[in-house]
TrEMBL record:
SMART domains: AAA
GO cellular component: plasma membrane
Gene Ontology MF terms in the entry: ATP binding; ATP hydrolysis activity
Keywords on record: Antibiotic resistance, ATP-binding, Nucleotide-binding, Transport
Subcellular location: Cell membrane
Protein name as catalogued: ABC-2 type transport system ATP-binding protein
Annotated ranges, domain ABC transporter: 22-256
PROSITE patterns listed in its UniProt record: ABC_TRANSPORTER_1 (PS00211), ABC_TRANSPORTER_2 (PS50893)
A GO biological-process term: response to antibiotic
Domain of life: Bacteria
Pfam families given in the database record: ABC_tran (PF00005)
Membrane topology: Peripheral membrane protein
């Protein structure tokens, strides 16, 4: 239907969608003569965790820097918490959290003092819903730095420094948090604690989180949605399961019976296994169901983008290679 303009009748403004935290349309970025982003589109809603994946040089950091308001885009319509990041003021900035690569300034300051000092900046931006800043002792506890609260920053280990980076990023209780490769340098225990923290921020505080990582296992554990950036565009956007299904719809079921090996592909693996066990019961041994992993999906989709060749079959090749 075509809209008809009636002279003198003001258009009813759309109420802002409070839950739409990121709205990126046709984002383009050019450095000199190098086109890095050719039209990036995606949205994020309140409390969602998004992982932005892509090969080195794909433009992940560029995208995040545009959204943070640190870099001016070449073209496109971008709204971050309802505001164009190129025009965001201090009040808008106070609603964002950014975890950059390591906090190296103020090496002589003590951890507690850094957080108290930075936290003070956020106090005027408290709202009825969000009390800012995060109380320092609670924050230290949350990021696992209580025992190091009185250490000077320059005396922290690499992993402790990274925890401080995270604390600096969330001290203002951000509504939107950007994490650029957050767990580089974490030991396995710190990584698990960090994952718990991300879940807690998203589930309890409804923080929207956009993270970049090259660790697909981490992306799968943390993200509600995976975005794959390649060739200057988002080439895939969905849950880890959806992406895996997209490149390999069928699951592969393997089993042995009476010493003989069997392999079968089925869209509904559960129904197939139920029938199989119903028919042969205890005779079925070494039952295995395998779907494409997020890594299979990532490799296939990026390969397709880079070569222009449909590579559905490549998943099977990788699966075979892994055996
Ligand atoms: N300030 C700049 N001036 C010119 N070119 C730049 C600039 N910053 C980035 N680039 C180029 O833009 C492209 C994208 O870089 P970007 O850092 O955004 O990629 P990335 O996906 O974050 O990569 P990585 O996974 O390696 O961190 C690269 O080719 C890079 O060389």
């Amino acid at each position: 239907m075509t809209a008809v303009e009636i002279p003198g009748v003001a258009e009813t403004p759309h109420p802002p969608d409070e839950d739409l935290v990121l709205d990126v349309r046709d984002l383009r970025m050019r450095y000199g003569s190098l086109d890095v982003l050719h039209g990036v589109d995606f949205t994020a809603r309140r409390g969602e965790v998004l992982a932005l994946l892509g090969p080195n040089g794909a433009g992940k950091t560029t995208t995040i820097e545009v959204l943070e308001g640190f870099r001016m885009r070449s073209a496109g319509d971008v709204r971050v918490l309802g505001v164009d990041p190129g025009r965001g003021d201090e009040r808008w900035r106070a609603r964002l959290g950014v975890v950059l690569q390591s906090w190296r300034d103020h090496g002589k300051w003590r951890v507690r003092d850094v957080l108290a000092h930075l936290g003070d900046f956020y106090a005027p931006y408290s709202t009825d819903r969000i009390r800012r800043p995060w109380p320092v002792d609670e924050l230290l506890e949350t990021v696992g730095l209580t025992a190091h609260a009185d250490k000077r920053v320059q005396r922290l280990s690499g992993g402790q420094r990274r925890r401080l980076d995270v604390a600096v990023g969330i001290v203002g209780r951000p509504e939107l948090l950007f994490l650029d490769e957050p767990t580089v340098g974490f030991d396995p225990a710190a990584r698990r604690e960090f994952h718990d923290l991300v879940h807690r921020l998203a589930d309890l505080d409804e923080t929207t989180i956009l993270l970049t990582t090259h660790d697909l296992d981490e992306a799968e554990k943390l993200a509600d949605r995976i975005l794959i950036l390649a060739g200057g565009r988002i080439i895939a956007d969905g849950s880890p399961d959806e992406l895996a299904r997209r490149v390999a719809g069928d699951a592969e079921i393997r089993w042995t019976r009476a010493g003989e090996r069997f392999v079968h592909s089925a869209t509904d693996a559960t129904a197939f296994v139920r029938d199989l066990l119903g028919q042969h019961g205890d005779e079925v041994q070494e039952l295995e169901v395998r779907r494409a992993s997020l890594e299979d999906a990532y490799m296939t989709l990026v390969y397709e983008e880079e070569t222009g060749v449909r590579a559905g079959a490549a998943v099977r090749v990788w699966q075979e290679r892994d055996r």
